[in-house]
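Data availability (excerpt). The following record was deposited with the supplementary files.
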Amino acid sequence: MVSFHGGGHRRNGFFTDAYDLFCISLVTKMLGRIYYHKPGSPKPGSLPPDVSAAVNGVALVGTLAGQLFFGWLGDKLGRKKVYGITLMLMCLCSIASGLSFGGNPKMVMATLCFFRFWLGFGIGGDYPLSATIMSEYSNKKTRGGFIAAVFAMQGFGILAAGGFTIVVSSLFDARFRVPPYEVDPVGSTPPEADYVWRIILMAGAVPALLTYYWRMKMPETARYTALVAKQADRAAVEMAKVLQMETPPEDWKVGPVEQALPSNNSFGLFSKEFVRRHGLHLLGTTSTWFLLDIAFYSQNLFQKDIFTAIGWIPAAKKMSAIHEVYRIARAQTLIALCSTVPGYWFTVFLIDKIGRFKIQLLGFSMMTIFMFALAFPYNHWTHPENNIKFVVMYSLTFFFANFGPNATTFVVPAEIFPARLRSTCHGISAASGKLGAIVGAFGFLYLAQSQDPAKADAGYPAGIGVKNALIVLGVINLLGTLCTLMVPESKGKSLEEMSGENEDTSNDLQP
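Predicted structure:
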């Protein structure tokens, strides 16, 4: 395996991204209790549907915009320069989202959403840049594992968000012992609860700040320098720094500037030549990521209902505000530990042996099977004696999402497109995924509501019910299986073989 410095710092970016994106779901119930308490109500306050959608979704919208913008900018200015900008944005906005100014609920939520949008914008840049940098540094034998390891840090980020929330909420819970809501509606949310959610959100800045110095010391990737900036000599020097060995410029097969790329390889993103060579590939990477994220993000919505059904989380009125945060964090951390994290690392260790295509096909197929197995006999699963089996099946869908398309959709776009369009095409694929996440997070929030209007959550219209929502998700996973057929296998091939760059030269750019 080629060893190089900086892989860990690259991976820390995704650790931070996942922490920042997922920590909000741990504290949304608390925000409802603090800012939307209704005197005399039998249930604790909860965020109105539009506010809940904004708080949970605004970072996803920001991420989508950031993926497109920074993906394009990474091909224009270089990977390294743009990377620093995204990191500073993430640090500043993590801190600012915890400060959220204003005296009334509307102002606090508005400023929280404003900073969460720009936080998402910074996170969006990390997707195409991290994947592109890792693919351009790695060798063809271990490249899949390297890129997947960057993405697998998401699992640890989700764990860290849960773990840190457990620590903070238990400390506050022990220090400020208050009765549950049904005993004392006002006293169950102590004034100090306002610090809990702010501390949890602001902690996301710490890992980003710790890696800033190291990220800025990394040189530009040699492939960008040679193939896009067309400076072969400098590329060889920078590659030698990273690999800690001499790489003569001629090894790069990129001579003087005018010969740096064959003339037939200078087509743009919107050209007929791009559509002929890579159109189907781009359709494959965007459609599979879009379909996966609908399923992946909507699954998270069912967690609280499932945990409540099996008694992992008591009814909200039986807990104080701080204790509720603790119970939600504990349940989500357990799911992450048992299914999400192992799934990611199965991919890291097996992707260069089995190949991207087979893992993605297996993942989508198994998700389809488990979704239908949960959906059709849904009433059977709601009986108390079957609850644990339901959670096991539900966990397995998460496992196969991560040992499957959630990892491979991130890896493949960084390998199959030309160097000067690589970051842009990865950004487009990732943004398509975030569009799916937005559809999943909001569409299913409404779809999964009970068909009986009286049983729907406060403020929501009647939906199609959880059973039908799960059937729809099964169909979406089946479509993902079919769209995978458009995605090429890149195992064991150099980036130049995959993208068709340097077709006219006998050597590839493998260092």
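Summary of structural features: The chain is about 70% helix and 0% strand.
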